[in-house]
Amino acid sequence: MASGHIRRVGVAKIARWVWSSDLTHRTLVRALLTSAVLAAGVMLAGCDSDQISLAQNAKANQPVPPKLVAAMAEKDMDMQSPILVRLFKQEAELEVWKQTRSGQFALLKTYPICRWSGDLGPKIREGDRQAPEGFYSINPSQMNPQSAYYLSFNTGYPNAFDKSLGRTGSELMVHGDCSSRGCYAMTDEQIAEIYSLGRESFFGGQRAFQFQAYPFRMTAVNMAKHRNNPNMPFWKMIKVGNDHFEVTKQEPKVDFCEKKYVFDAAKPADATRDPVFNASAKCPAYVIPEEIASAVREKEQRDDAEMAKLAAKGTPVARLNTGIDGGMNAIFASKIPEGNTGLSEGGDSQALQSMSLARAPGTIPGTVNPPRPNLAVQQEEPVVATTSSTTVARAPSSTPPAGTRVASANASDKSEGFLSSFARKVGIGGTADASQPAARPQPQAPVVAAPARPKVAETKPQSVVRVAPKAEPKQAARPALKPSVTDTAAAAPAAATGTQLAGSAPVVQSNSFDTRFSAVK
């Protein structure tokens, strides 16, 4: 019996190996055929520079790493099955989900985010440094193999919902180089993997993959922690889409009407045609399939009950308007001198020290812009915890207890500066604000003066921390190819010339790269 069991295990392992080898072989053959077709098209059409660069673009044609191919075989996924991407700012993580042969999506891999900018909350206007939140669709024309940030794809912001609210902004990307000004930045090795997975899904017939961007994982704990945030109505709305995905493990169908999201809408039983949605118009008649609606309703009831319990217990709320620009996953912050995770989790010194010996998932550029307070931004006092998710705490008439800061009812009140706050906390100074009520006690000691710091223009990177000196510009020093990201082994060498065409990019019209701002992103 034991020997029979061993034989069955051995057969299973061999079958998985054969399946992985077959996927890799098919990828190589398809890449060669695709590149040949592209080359032939270029010869027939003349000298089309976009088509030539795409056919010869080694970065965009890197094959899916063997480790990921093996993971697909283990999880019963096809190489070319559809994908779905989920992203969480507070956790600084990007997830790639892939459809299994059962038809449902399963998590393939989680990538730590090297850098994101702005605050928790959606993007509102051009230049606000906010990285977008919501549901977006990524088609092949949004994939940029010629990005100045190694590789990238456009998130599709603004979508119809954003436009209905008059929100502005463009060219918001997920890209490499660990540098963000309103984008989500990965390492070059990470974006190469993500790009290859998207490319393969398009080869398999997926017309667009869904990109879900959240401020944090939509758990009851996080919702309670941020219950006083003015973005909570928007977050509750996109949480519905999150819940649809989590209970069905299917990509939710997204529509917009009356300036709101609608998920998995279907035509009523007596309707003869599908409902037509317009983000700025009245919602048409529609229904949510009962099996989905009931499962989502049960999950929402559980989450709401847990949130109410946490709020009643006085769970502290997160600070607002901290002036910190975005976040960084702790695995990257631990590799940077005086690194900080910013608005992302795991930023305490003990946690960073414990991760300092772990291998970073990719190459951190020689210069990085870690999160740090923006002293040029005037901050407002954070609010204290309340038991209501729809109200904001207001300043009481009496002096609050020591150590407690309360939101002021006066909209013109501003928080004290960072250095002054630090001086007051350690007992070497204080501040006096003429706009505060007269009942507030005046400080007894003068503020300790701090050296003036020049303000930095918003469109430029903030202070730069060097990890390693670089003698040449970034583009000149970067190798043409990046090794795949591995969890346990050292990064593999760059792909050889003979395998650069593995998993080649799909045919794209020559004018499709005109809006890809290759010189900018």
Could you characterize what this model shows?
This protein has twelve helices and 14 strands. Helix 1 packs antiparallel against helix 2 (49-55), helix 1 crosses helix 3 (66-74) and helix 7 (232-248) packs across helix 8. Strand 11 (254-257) and strand 12 form a beta hairpin. It is globular. The strands form four sheets. A five-stranded mixed sheet has the order 3-2-1-10-5, sandwiched between helices. It has a five-stranded mixed sheet with strand order 4-9-8-7-6, with helices on one face. The protein has 521 residues and is of the alpha+beta class.
Q: Could you tell me the radius of gyration in angstroms? A: 26 Å
Global shape: globular
Cross-sheet strand order for the largest sheet: 3-2-1-10-5
**Multimeric status of the protein:** single chain
What is the ordering of alpha helices and beta strands? Answer: HHHEEEEEEEHEEHEHHEEHHHEHEH
Average residue-wise pLDDT: 75
Q: How would you classify the helix and strand content by structural class?
A: alpha+beta
Keyword list:
521 residues, alpha+beta, 12 helices, 14 strands, globular, disordered C terminus
Which helices and strands appear, and what pairs or packs with what?
Elements (H helix, E strand, L loop, with lengths): L1 H44 L3 H7 L10 H9 L8 E6 L4 E7 L5 E8 L2 E2 L17 E5 L4 E2 L7 E3 L5 H5 L8 E3 L8 E2 L2 H16 L5 E6 L5 H6 L6 H17 L5 E4 L2 E4 L26 H23 L17 H4 L15 H7 L11 E2 L49 H8 L39 E2 L7 H4 L44
Parallel strand pairs: 1-10, 8-9
Antiparallel strand pairs: 1-2, 2-3, 4-9, 5-10, 6-7, 7-8, 11-12, 13-14
Q: Concise description?
A:
The chain has 521 residues and is of the alpha+beta class. It has twelve helices and 14 strands.
